[in-house]
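mind reviewing this fold:
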Amino acid sequence: MSIMLSAQEMENNLILRQDNKLIYCQTTTKQVKTQSDVFYYWTKKRKMHRTEGAYGGHLLDGGFEAYFPSGQLYEKGEMKKGAKQGEWIRWFESGTKREVIHYKRGVSHGVFIRYNEEGVVTESGSYKKGIKHGKWYASGVEGENMQRYKHGEPIPNKSIDNEIPDPEHTSEVEDSKKEKVSLKQRLRRVFRGIENTHPDAE
């Protein structure tokens, strides 16, 4: 079964060559109300543009794919009214996955993962409305580090020394408690002895 595309649909499906990449994309002529903190992707005279908070041509809308000259996929995702939406993936020219990031209405929102050329995760975390939030992990030559974020601001990590009780200190506290208990017991015995020997007690 063959699929017939209208002249408008064929016009909205573009193949562009830009920045040493071959780009397959779709556009729309619909107008949208822009937001100042969102990057919009649009085309004019067969060139793709990226501007913040504004646009001056046909907005990208639909599937987006960009390829290296070798034919290896470089980037893939979905555009909605000129802004990135959902999961976007990038690859190294070797074919190894490079980056996974999620968007909501053009703003990074959700899981983020970065890989090196060997396919090993070097950074991972989550975005919330364009800023880092929650636990972020980074791996390097010194091992793996974890940093917590709240509304984009790093939260000081608790010292391991503060989280793990010191056995010596714990035993000292326990011994001190025992001494206090035994002292109370001795005092009670003394007072009982005094009461038993008091003249009024007979």
